[in-house]
């Protein structure tokens, strides 16, 4: 397991358990059960205590944990008849945004997910989850398709931000993001967005202007990354920890500010310690959200969504 910097005491305890078990394999006469049980109890308590008092910067680290489940992990577990649609009908295909049609618990839906990849090859393929303009134009295409056929939309945001390179700017990155936001706001069907890891900048907002916005307990959501904010305000990324606190990027802060609608609990120790349980918890929250919106007309959904986002602007 990959341990984060603040998890060093946990790593030491769990490392001792592994060492004891290796010794017992070499010498079957050793009785280690009592000691292992004691260490496991201490490690479990330490994990629970550590994750109960995470700072905003530590939550940033957890949200970026490489073992955290990514969109395709969610798709494999909770989406049936998973059918990705490729291309933006203008330039080409973008692998950072995976979008198409599927069934969620038997119900036809449209989906949009940002995929980071989980090894070197897949990370390069998906551009580390940072989409080019064609990714957002593909998202807008899916929004329009869902609206035309009356399909609920499920989106899963997990990106450090849209790709900031010259090639993306040349192809109209800002316009593509704006068009995706507009298309999402215009959908006359239930639209649920879930922040499953990093929800940074317009790259995430482009697919998260939803009727219901949910966040995993240790995910983050902001108009800019802590490092980007620190570079602008203090001219140094070294101030990222202070920026993380000031930006109010945690799920708990954003629920209090009424920017999001609910927090999905993670297993003790973060989603990377229980990926399957995390994914199922997200699915249950999505199902509850869809049930809440049953029977609401398209025009009323639009009115509520408009009021939701205008209300955020007035409060903040």
Explained architecture:
The structure is a single chain. The protein is of the alpha/beta class and 316 residues long. The protein has two domains: 13-53; 61-315, 2-enoyl-CoA Hydratase, Chain A, domain 1, CATH 3.90.226.10. It contains 14 helices and eight strands. It has helices spanning 8-26, 33-52, 56-63, 71-78, 120-125, 133-149, 166-170, 173-186, 201-205, 226-233, 240-247, 251-256, 275-292, 298-315; strands at 79-84, 97-104, 107-114, 153-159, 191-200, 212-216, 220-222, 262-264. Strands 1, 2, 3, 4, 5, 6, 7 and 8 form an eight-stranded mixed β-sheet that branches. A hairpin with a 2-residue loop joins β2 (97-104) and β3. α1 packs antiparallel against α2 (33-52) and α4 (71-78) packs across α13. The radius of gyration is 21 Å and the shape is globular. The relative contact order is 0.12. The model has no long low-confidence stretch (mean pLDDT 94).
In CATH, what is the homologous superfamily of the largest domain? Answer: 2-enoyl-CoA Hydratase, Chain A, domain 1
Please name the CATH architecture of the largest domain. Alpha-Beta Complex
Measured as a percent range, the helix fraction is 40-55%
Q: What portion of residues belong to β-strands?
A: 15-25%
Mean pLDDT: 94
Count of extended strands: 8
Q: Please summarize the sheet with the most strands.
A: 8 strands, mixed
**In the CATH hierarchy, what is the class of the largest domain?**
Alpha Beta
Q: Tell me the span between the first and last alpha carbons.
A: 40 Å
Number of helices: 14
